[in-house]
């Protein structure tokens, strides 16, 4: 994604302020101690709800009316408080205003940042809910929010001071019942995943339990999650809806569900998320969590994943297993979509900076390739592949897909089409000279030219049963270590 640099506006509890990056920069160790954590924080989570607005006239961030609230027990590490992964479209820091020392930081992506890359953002203003979660501080802290500019360099856009004495420390009564899928250790020493259900009526809760167990087992059969199962705790939240299913506007299926998950995000019929970030966080506060996944009780193909924000998957699609793992890759490790022939809501074309996502690049030369250490000697860069044949087949699939949707055919028609596509793609992508090798294959992140992926095939590129490529596996492992390593 290409993000425009916008005027710096800081609105919040501390009033209006303008500042430069140099004024807020400081160095801190990325590894602390439990004693240092306890000196600065309690073992609860603070959530600062924001509204992020933008459009043709610029960008503004403001604290929501409720301000800072309790968001449940702290599930993160007590020792690895600073995020050094350089992932996400946004990055926030919690600073001690007396010393300017960084106490905590996290990268994440947002629906606002995705929307900003659509054509609508140039024509009309819009506001999105956003939330920052961090350990509950014992004294006032400065919150500094930065976003990537056109060169993917973080630039500050918002700051405020939060005084815990003025925050709301009351715990939210759970909106549903939390149950444990499996537990490997204390939340602060493990990576905690929370599964939520959307579109499950009370009578559907046994199905939700079965869907959770099936898809969690699937995730931990995939590397590198399989090798790191002992680093995870997984819990689930029963959150009954009034009736079965979720909002599908293009199908004129109308629902009001607890999390407001819907199809058709940014005009894409298969993109499934919730715009209501604050409702999602309110529900999730019932359990300790680092990452979350929403299982959508629907048969229509669809899902979505936003790094360190949310992920969804339609559980009754024939492609539920693919959707679950693929979208979780976005949410968990900031992996980019590697495909480029499907319709997307984002504007494409133009010169691209080096992407922040770990699995795509604009620099395929050996001396600048960010995964060069995984490329075997003798592998050409860029790496040749059957690009023309792949694109021809894909164009035919997209044409048929549009016809199926326009005719209002049942979800099974799309599932059948995708099965035929996967069979053809598996045969093509698995039989080339450089199949199975790490290289730099042109065509990635919605761009046919100028961006490259690391492998001919990967679950981030196609629906083929190939799992994560070596570069994606390494990126996932790095995030696991960020949360679960002492």
How is this structure best summarized?
With 486 residues, this protein is an alpha+beta fold. The protein is built from 9 helices and 18 strands. It folds into 3 domains: 146 residues, Sandwich (Immunoglobulin-like), CATH 2.60.40; 157 residues, Collagenase (Catalytic Domain) (3-Layer(aba) Sandwich), CATH 3.40.390; 108 residues, no CATH class.
Tell me what the structure shows.
The relative contact order is 0.12. Strand 17 and strand 18 (about 445-455) form a beta hairpin. The model is unreliable at about 1-30 (pLDDT under 50). The chain is globular. It has three domains: about 20-165, Peptidase M64, N-terminal domain (Immunoglobulin-like, Sandwich); about 175-335, Collagenase (Catalytic Domain) (3-Layer(aba) Sandwich); about 360-465, no CATH class. The protein contains nine helices and 18 strands. The longest helix is centred in the C-terminal third of the chain and has 20 residues, at about 385-405. The strands form five sheets. A six-stranded mixed beta sheet has the order 8-10-9-13-15-14. The protein has a four-stranded antiparallel beta sheet with strand order 4-3-6-7, with no helix packed on it. A three-stranded antiparallel beta sheet has the order 2-1-5. The protein is of the alpha+beta class and about 475 residues long. The protein has helices spanning about 20-25, 35-40, 110-115, 205-220, 275-285, 320-335, 385-405, 410-430, 470-485, and strands at about 40-55, 60-75, 90-95, 100-110, 125-135, 140-150, 155-160, 175-180, 190-200, 230-240, 260, 275, 290-295, 305, 310-315, 360, 440-445, 445-455.
